[in-house]
Design a protein that fits this description.
313 residues; mainly alpha; 2 domains; 9 helices; 68% helix; membrane; transmembrane helix
Length: 313
């Protein structure tokens, strides 16, 4: 069973006074074989309002059946309606819910929406034809033809207005949904461009640090060779070479650590909220260990033409 929506419950609650206005004269009409069918028809026209947005065609069918029962029922006596003349049950206030049913189909149904409007127009014609003789001349007793025409035009106007309002509601909802989807797509496209820019920047930084580390390693190797040669001539000069090697190694290590700290920094472009209904997964970022290992492997690669010195025999 579909869950009830708050707006449907509010519409049903607002229709309860209208239901009371329809039930009272039917009940006061006295014992009749049409009393129970009319009461059931009135309830049948009001109760489906609870699911009108989720099951619009069910609401329309129930309202149409209820209106048909009221149309075929005999007129209510003046003693029940407190009016100068008899009143057909189809002119009770609950009959206006047929327009609400047409609105629900036009606004919430996905297929065959014009069919509801056609049935509504046919119902207005049938109402005018059924009430052509024996209408309660309450408003314009001197011009009964105008009263007949007013009933037909009023029914057709109710159908047209309900259908137009329903279609406007459906188009407004579709426009809002398209606007939200377009905004989300634009935001995702913007995030993708930012991710691409960040990836390219990280690649450039990694290349720069790799070149810097390679240069420092070359310097370290040169100083190591000089230190070995100096140690053969004067052992005291080896300390200066070792100090230079230490300085170059610390500088290269600092370059690598600065790169890793930048790569591990949180991405500020992903701090903004995205659509919760379809969240996009952020691009995976390699771990610190994998980055450090790849950086160390890349930095340990020596340029061509510079082979490591063979150990002295």
């Amino acid at each position: 069973m579909p869950a009830l929506r708050r707006q449907d419950v509010l519409v049903f609650t607002a229709s309860l006074p209208v239901l009371a206005l329809g039930v009272a004269p039917v009940w006061l009409a006295g014992e009749s074989m049409w009393r129970i069918p009319c009461l059931v028809a009135l309830v049948l026209m009001h109760l489906p309002l609870l699911v009108r947005s989720r099951l619009p065609w069910v609401t329309f069918a129930a309202t149409a059946v209820g209106a048909l029962v009221l149309l075929t029922s005999p007129a209510l006596p003046p003693s029940a309606t407190h009016l100068p003349g008899a009143l057909p049950p189809v002119l009770l206030p609950s009959a206006a819910l047929f327009g609400v049913a047409i609105y629900s189909v036009a606004a919430h149904a996905r297929t065959y929406r014009p069919l509801a409007a056609l049935i509504g127009v046919a119902g207005a014609v049938e109402l005018t034809a059924a009430l052509w003789n024996g209408l309660p001349w309450l408003l314009v007793p001197s011009i009964p033809e105008a009263w007949r025409v007013a009933v037909g035009l009023g029914g057709a106007l109710l159908v047209a207005l309900a259908y137009a309002c329903g279609r406007w509601r459906a188009l407004a909802a579709a426009h809002g949904d398209l606007t939200a989807r377009w905004s989300y797509a634009s935001e995702e496209n913007h995030h993708q461009h930012l991710d691409l820019a960040v990836t390219q920047q990280q690649a450039r930084m990694a290349g720069e640090v790799q070149r810097a580390v390679a240069a420092h390693l070359e310097d370290i190797l040169d100083q190591a060779r000089e230190g070995r040669r100096a140690a053969r001539r004067a052992p005291g000069l080896a300390a200066d070479a070792l100090a230079g090697i230490t300085t170059s190694g610390e500088e290269a290590l600092g370059r690598v650590q600065s790169l890793l700290s930048l790569l591990d920094a949180p991405d500020p472009t992903r701090s903004s909220t995205t659509n919760p209904s379809s969240p996009s997964s952020p691009p995976s970022t390699p771990s610190r260990r994998s980055r450090s290992s790849s950086t160390s492997r890349a930095s340990s690669t020596r340029p061509a033409g510079r082979a490591s010195p063979s150990p002295s025999r």
